[in-house]
Amino acid sequence: MISNADYLIQKYAEAREKMNATCNYDEEQYWQGVMDTYWQLLDAGWGASWCAPDSVGYYVFIEQMTYDEALNQVTGTLVDC
Questions:
Q1: Angle, vertex CA 53, rays to CA 50 and CA 59, nearest 5
Q2: CA angle at residue 75 from 67 to 81, to 5 degrees?
Q3: DSSP characters for 33-48?
Q4: Of 21, 33, 51, 69, which one has the greatest count of Cβ atoms within 10 A?
């Protein structure tokens, strides 16, 4: 089951992928704003628990992995893309 924090982490990771894929400054700024919003929602709602070491949040935010890579790292299994 995906919690609200997991959903926000997943959406943050997707926004970062879109930001990294664009060559347009305005789009890059838009996606950065989206990422900032998700981060603020996580920080306000869950404190530091969402980015505890060896959690999906840690790997997405600290290690800069995609959501699927982070999930794979935590569970030790391959995740279909």
A1: 75
A2: 40
A3: HHHHHHHHHHHHHHTT
A4: 51
pLDDT digits (tens, 9 = 90+) for 17-56: 999 999 999 999 999 999 999 989 988 887 777 888 889 9
Q: What is the model's pTM?
A: 0.80
**Token code pair at residue 21:** 């894929």
Domain around 21: 4-75
In a domain, 34, yes or no: yes
The number of distinct structural domains making up the chain is: 1
Quote the CA–CA distance of 62 and 51 in Å, as a whole number: 8
DSSP three-state, residue 14: helix
Any domain includes 31? yes
Query: What pLDDT does 13 receive?
Result: 95
Tokens representing residue 53 in the block? 């070491």
